[in-house]
Amino acid sequence: MAVSPPLPVDLSGIRLDPGKGLAGQLYQALRERILDGRLPAGVRLPASRDLATLLGVGRNTVVRAFDQLYAEGYVEGRVGAGTYVAAVTASAPVPATTPLDVPLTQPLQRLQAHHLPLPREGAPRAFRVGVPAFDLFPFETWARLSARFWRKPSPARLGYGDPAGDWQLRELIAAYLRNGRGLHCDPAQIIVTCGAQQAISLCAQLLVEVGDKVAVENPGYRAAGHAFAVAGAQLVGIAVDGQGLDTDELESADCRMAYVTPSHQYPTGVTLSLARRLALLDWAERREGWIIEDDYDGEYRYNGTPLAPLAALDRNGRVLYVGTFCKIAFPALRLGYLVLPKALAEAFSRRRALDTRHLEIGTQAVMASFIADGHFQRHIRRMRAAARSRRDALLANWPQDIRGCAPLPDVEAGLHLCVRVDSLTREAELIARAAQVGVELNGLSDYWLPGSPLADDQRAGLVLGFAAVPEARIVEATEALRAAWSD
Amino acid sequence: MAVSPPLPVDLSGIRLDPGKGLAGQLYQALRERILDGRLPAGVRLPASRDLATLLGVGRNTVVRAFDQLYAEGYVEGRVGAGTYVAAVTASAPVPATTPLDVPLTQPLQRLQAHHLPLPREGAPRAFRVGVPAFDLFPFETWARLSARFWRKPSPARLGYGDPAGDWQLRELIAAYLRNGRGLHCDPAQIIVTCGAQQAISLCAQLLVEVGDKVAVENPGYRAAGHAFAVAGAQLVGIAVDGQGLDTDELESADCRMAYVTPSHQYPTGVTLSLARRLALLDWAERREGWIIEDDYDGEYRYNGTPLAPLAALDRNGRVLYVGTFCKIAFPALRLGYLVLPKALAEAFSRRRALDTRHLEIGTQAVMASFIADGHFQRHIRRMRAAARSRRDALLANWPQDIRGCAPLPDVEAGLHLCVRVDSLTREAELIARAAQVGVELNGLSDYWLPGSPLADDQRAGLVLGFAAVPEARIVEATEALRAAWSD
Question: Which CATH architecture has domain A22-85?
């Protein structure tokens, strides 16, 4: 075979690895040379046959690489007269490694002041907050229901679905709320969400105007406060006393929206009294305002049945009720719901369609089976018993007479408790020493809004989740704390 | 047994159903009477023993009902002196049936002009748009992988996770983008999202300031346009010609953000030429702007390999790349991703934490196995072949010489095609007659922004998805159309 004529262009350095797709490699090599100017516009590429010979590959390989270059506009004019590098102006792409001086939009600016720390990593430890006894979740059952759904899903459920969520699940949630929480609603008022956080965030995105004042409990759930703040709200902290949110203070604040955790105030654990509930509803009616009721752990009540939620007392469609499956199942399930006043249901569903279309179908369908088959109610009872027993283990083994730390309070509800500490210094010290022996504690000081009127040391305390690990590990943790804290 | 003394209060009408929880029913009945004033504040309730006798229930039942009322603040002072109705002001709760005159916030107002119609219901039919050949999805494999994950999930993955998504899945996405799309990125730049829509919406929420002008293709993907609009953007429609988005027109528009579908323009099917790609990147660099590149069906290319995305040419960190698994798997999976310039990754992750915490773990973990075990790559090839074959069935069987309807174009990519029609009247007529024989067609006129400069009839056309149903059903549908459209 005759030696090819010298190539009109520099193709040196092209090395094709026979173990990988040859055409793709050749395409990449040529494209790189076109983009960085080594093959300038107008240059004629060698005939495919010549290039194939030169590189020791089949002609088809070269043709496929040329086709791809042609399809993307890097080369042109292949019919008859040969293949030319197209007139494109560019230099070599380099990875985007240089952080930009990004001009900050308002939403980006708000995030600088309002964001959460990254979640704690690893398996739950004592005394992680916000985590139920998910070591008891019937994963075998969940696996079986998942496999059952996925083996033969109805094609009608696999396309784009109702933005508000799977209808069957919404019916079951409505029935659960009716029977379990005394809350009567139509499934059409329910939107299935990616956990409570998405429910709260939707409320923030739709009902807050930039600059609006929104009342939040202080101390309170920072993830909710941040969600309102990034929607443009100005947060107004309202004090919490033994009856829950101080509604008198709320009256004097210039707000039309309030976010509350009536069943079990987060983080103090106080239950909002009936008088306050009625005052709050009355406030919302007079102001034509909204109450976001976050019933995040309403299933956990150890004396009597769970309290009836605010939404069950609402006569005027002023309460948006947030519920979650994450405190009964596990947080990474990211399944919750929002019960809306009827006047708001359509708008929320429309917004949800633009935000995410809807939630993934499998989780919704499997949860629907889990409820319909009776596993859910059984699991609630199991979880309530487990949380009570873990609470008891904590109360019975907590070290007595810790300097600067109040005795543990009674705990009649929820998955965590809150205990006051004398000073911020002592709070930090207790937490640091606990961390040294592998015990997680949260400081109450983290739950206050910045610039809270209370004296610094009055914001000190410890927040302990007692449900995350079994009794034996709670006992171990309390023993570790006793040693770590002995002065 | 002596007859009880007359009750001091009216408890007539309380009937307890022995088949259900008695204490709960009694609690409900008493609570209702307290709230509607039949049992006014200060009234002393009968002793629990007397009430039990009267109602023919155990005393414990009454005590539990009273406990619950006490816990909720409806009654007070039980020790010694008896049980009194507490001083609460309320009237009977009635269901919130009356739609409010809701005062409209700006976000609610924007939704009135910008929302999607509800998705089509039922199993896919010819020629539904946006739906891949999911009848070929290996559900048995997905079911097996789901069961495998759920049977023994690592506890570390069940709590609150990384807001950007499961790290393993992000690594696999990065590898897929590198090998399959020529896009090199660090998994830290990737955020796993609830489908492409959430990726687009996140961009809108974070990068748009109220009043900003955002360039969108016209005609274009309305769900994206609406997402920008509800974030406060003013949409600027940019014309699309045979090379894709008209970058000259973009230059003359006062925008700093553009949303584009370069691989296969939605809905016209045009591929953005290389020269335009480079012009677009240059525009973004000069304006310090952002390009949202939606590569929704980039895997489907029938000649040559898929085109390299814009993000792979970006030297300046100006492209936000949106990808989705929904066009390879099925829409209800709601799994997509966003590849961010490094400078934006942290802010987006922070916002995501406040919006939803993160995506449900199961879907992410199962997709990670699906990719790692090689099913994904195999399935892409299967889906590409199926879509090509369905395209061929449509092209071969489409009725010829339909009055007012152009011939079908060449289709080299994607899951749908677009064909021009002479007039809006004719478009409506063709769609209506198709619907009568059970065939779904979308009107091209639906994809334009309101107030587009083009003459009305130039906006007419049909958009047909060809991948949703098997070849035989495509042939049936074309035959039905031939009959329905014969004049």
Answer: Orthogonal Bundle (1.10)
The residue of chain B with its CA nearest to that of A276 is B88
Q: What is the mean pLDDT of chain B?
A: 90
- Express each pLDDT in A288-306 by its tens digit: 999 999 999 999 999 866 6
Q: Where are the alpha helices (DSSP H) in B333-469?
A: 342-356, 361-372, 375-397, 424-436
How far apart are the C-alpha atoms of A479 and A464, rounded to whole Å? 15
Q: In the prediction, which pLDDT does A74 show?
A: 81
Q: CATH 1.10.10.10 residue ranges in chain A?
A: 22-85
Top-confidence residue, A7 or A470: A470
Do strands B290-294 and B257-260 pair parallel, antiparallel, or not at all (unpaired)?
A: parallel
Residue A386 has pLDDT above 70, yes or no: yes
Q: Do A201 and B354 touch (CB under 8 A)?
A: yes
Mean pLDDT of A206-228: 97
pLDDT tops 90 at residue A68: no
Chain B residue closest in CA terms to A138: B151
What residues does CATH 3.40.640.10 cover in chain B? Answer: 110-123+137-375
Q: Name chain A contacts of B257, Cβ cutoff 8 Å.
A: none
Q: Looking at the domain A110-123+137-375, which fold is it?
A: Aspartate Aminotransferase; domain 2 (3.40.640)
Q: What residues of chain B lie within 8 A of the CB of A87, using their CB?
A: 275
Contact A105 B206 (CB under 8 A): yes
What is the second-level CATH architecture of the domain B378-484? Alpha-Beta Complex (3.90)
Q: Cis omega (within 30 of 0) on the bond before A139?
A: no
CB atoms A159 and B131 under 8 Å? yes
Q: Alpha carbon of A344 to those of A162, A320, B94: distances in Å?
A: 16, 9, 17
Stated pTM of the model:
0.85
CA-nearest of B16, B14, B28 to B68 is: B28
Q: Which residue of A has its CA nearest to B179?
A: A24
Residue in chain B closest to A155 (alpha carbons) equals B123
Mean pLDDT is lowest, of A150-159, B77-86, B167-176, for: B77-86
Q: Tell me the count of A-B CB pairs closer than 8 A.
A: 366
Closest partner residue to A226 (CB to CB) among B157, B343, B354 is B354
A94 pLDDT tier (thresholds 50, 70, 90)? very low
Minimum distance, in Å, between the CA of residue A125 and any CA atom of chain B: 10
